[in-house]
Amino acid sequence: MNQRRIPRKRTYLLCAPEYFSVQYVINPWMDPTAPVDVELAVKQWDRLRETLLGLGHTVHVLHPEPGLPDMVFAANGAFVVDGTVYGARFRYEQRTAEAAAHRAFYEAQGWRYVAPTVTNEGEGDFAYLPDAHGGTILAGYGFRTEVSAHAEAQETLGRPVVSLRLVDPRFYHLDTALAALDDRNIAYYPGAFSPASQQVLAQLFPDAVLADEVDALAFGLNLVGDGRHVVLNSEASGLASRVAAAGYVPVPVELGELKKGGGSVKCCIAELRH
User: Fold this and answer.
1) Residue 71, CB-side half-sphere exposure with 13 Å CA sphere
2) Choosing from 57, 102, 150, 267, which is the catalytic residue?
3) What gap in Å lies between CA 46 and CA 40, rounded to an integer?
4) How confident is the model over 178-205, as pLDDT tens digits?
5) DSSP readout, the chain?
6) Are 47 and 55 in contact, with CB atoms under 8 Å apart?
7) Residue 222's CB: how many other CB atoms inside 10 A?
8) Whether residue 147 has pLDDT greater than 90
């Protein structure tokens, strides 16, 4: 019998896709020739926001800015642990200005903001598990975030950082290949990582839920878990069954329009950890 999973109330930051479009190519999923239905994108995003609120979580909304079509992917703007914000520094100039918008939000809230000196893309490449091994940050590198940012994050946040090398460009951020299901366990797709990183993950998380390539390519791992509920892309039905078998409650949502920009549930959500 699976253990009873207990949800924990979370605080999230989202940004509406009011100006969402695919105007350039900075990941393998983006195709500027494919039409984007902004009205549908907003409706799907609204459903995601309502889903989080319905699960009892607090949701803050960052004001979108024209000229920043990827701003809906709010996870990339910073990484927050225990009230300290490690700011983002984007690799591509098309997204650079997003960092300032996130900084302004956190400073207005009175959070301690630490500006980065090296490239990192926030929760796109960082995941925090407060109850795993005394509090562990998993950090991806290989395509966006520089590995030197892992050391900077460790010094900034005072938590041990485990570096994981991504090797498949389709999984260009850690949050496309790995996600925290709760405060101590994860789900991930082994094929996105180098052999050595796969060994590290297997040692640290022997009870992890493993995704196959089909569900990984459906952005199934770009999910958000609160300890009991797992909000994930509705296309990833196989992964939904696996997390259910592990005792979690899958909550599927449709984000097909935003997927055209290379993101899904987690990309849209930054967690504010007080």
Assistant:
1) 23
2) 267
3) 10
4) 999 999 999 999 999 999 999 999 999 9
5) -PPPP-----EEEEE--TT----S-SSTT--TTS---HHHHHHHHHHHHHHHHHTT-EEEEEPP-TT-TTTT-GGGGEEEETTEEEE-B-SSGGGTTHHHHHHHHHHHTT-EEE--SS-B-GGGTEEEETTSTTSEEEEEESSSS-THHHHHHHHHH-S-EEEEEB--TTS-SGGGTEEESSSS-EEE-GGGB-HHHHHHHHHH-TTPEEP-HHHHHTTTTS-EE-SSEEEEETT-HHHHHHHHHTT-EEEEE--HHHHTTT--TGGG-EE---
6) no
7) 31
8) yes
Instruction: Please provide the average confidence, as pLDDT, over all residues in the chain.
Output: 97
Query: Which among 173, 229, 268, 274 is annotated as catalytic?
Result: 173
Do the Cβ atoms of 220 and 189 come closer than 8 Å? no
Output the pLDDT for position 4. Answer: 82
> Active site includes 267?
yes
- For 105, 121, 131, 136, the CA distances from 111, given in Å and listed in that order, are 9, 19, 23, 21
CATH number, domain 11-271: 3.75.10.10
Q: Mark whether 268 is an active-site residue.
A: no
Say what the pLDDT of residue 1 is: 39
| 198 token code pair | 């796969």
